[in-house]
Amino acid sequence: MTLADNRVQAAGQCLPSYDVLVVGGGVLGLWGAVEAARRGAKVLLADAGRIGQGASFGLVGALMPHMPDKWNQKKQFQFDALVSLEHEVVALEAATGLSAGYRRTGRLVPLPKPHLRDIALRHSADAEAAWQVQGGRFHWHVLDRPPVDGFVAPETGACGFVFDTLAARASPRRVTALLAAWLRQQPNVTLLEDTGVIRLDDHAGEALLSDGERVRFAHALVASGHRAFGALAEIVGPLEKPLGQPVKGQSALLAADLDPAFPVLFFGGLYVIVHENGHVAIGSTSEDQFADAFACDGQLDALIDKARSIVPALADAPVIERWAGLRPKAIGRDPLVGPLPDHPRIIALAGGFKVSFGIAHLLAKAALAAVEGKAPDVPESFLPESHIALARRP
Ligand SMILES: Cc1cc2nc3c(=O)[nH]c(=O)nc-3n(C[C@H](O)[C@H](O)[C@H](O)COP(=O)(O)OP(=O)(O)OC[C@H]3O[C@@H](n4cnc5c(N)ncnc54)[C@H](O)[C@@H]3O)c2cc1C
Question: What is the position in ligand 1's atom list of the atom closest to the CA of 30?
């Protein structure tokens, strides 16, 4: 990629010009901008609101592997992402002096029924076969007792516990702050807030911004969270179904003096994550139907009660924040990443649904491969073609 001229003549007018326009400053758009900037591109990232304050403004921050059985490309992609993320975080932390609140804590899953232990033992063997990296660094242990005291009530795992050593956690808000801080250090990057991209004309390579300005771009990464589905569909043309939908999630932050080295706890859909600084995150609901996208209600109270019952140290812990957001779920359930068919300037970078924070850096590398005219190195099910085919079915 070569750096384009700062200003080009378009229809007799001088417009600011960028190699890469990033639409949206959530965790995906921020990583997209980082990867573009690392390649020397001139980057404009425009967010309709505040950077990092869409779905990425969450509290939970679980970075979780897939089950290690029936290994496939998608599981390998997520595995590679979870292995490589810590190095990426270390590099950005060193450059900015900020912390992402990242720690490879592992994950603890109580096993309440005997058949779950049998499955866990099979998964343990599967993980030994599939998780081959750095001399077998990561494991799927099946234990009789929790590996740490003072955290989960031992009776929660009547038939034992899975303890995997691959999972990690990070603070979502710190991650986006870290990425934004690194981007602000780069002379080839411009960040705009409260400035939406309201139209992308890929033939002209021109975008209209909500402040009335127009900019030129060589490539645009569409990373506007759940809003990306509509924006991409406008470019693709008529479809039978939307390319994706928002799924509401509610979560909470409690104050409790627990050891930040405690593993991520996952039990029956509930995450309890001990972060740094005496913060414990609890999440989350998953709601396809909702009246108010950003309201918290009794469903969250039920999750908090459940967390208090399985982690006794949370019994009296005060709730310091309740938060709800809209996860972007693509029609194929997998991320939606890569150039749009017949519109190679427009590159989707969306649909991370529940796992964006663990894989965003690799999705961004794939998006930038597309900018460079190479095939993005992602499973086929992630590519726009796959999602569009589903959306075209009546
Ligand atoms: C309760 C909850 C818990 C979660 N827990 C986890 C977890 O534990 N682990 C995990 O990995 N993931 C988790 N997720 C999912 C994760 O937060 C999302 O998948 C991720 O934040 C999506 O990032 P994004 O960049 O695609 O979208 P967003 O963060 O929503 O960013 C999109 C941005 O685009 C901007 N935008 C929209 N339209 C335009 C436009 N026209 N022009 C310019 N900008 C625009 C928005 O203002 C926004 O800032 C959770 C989500 C929720 C709601």
Answer: 25
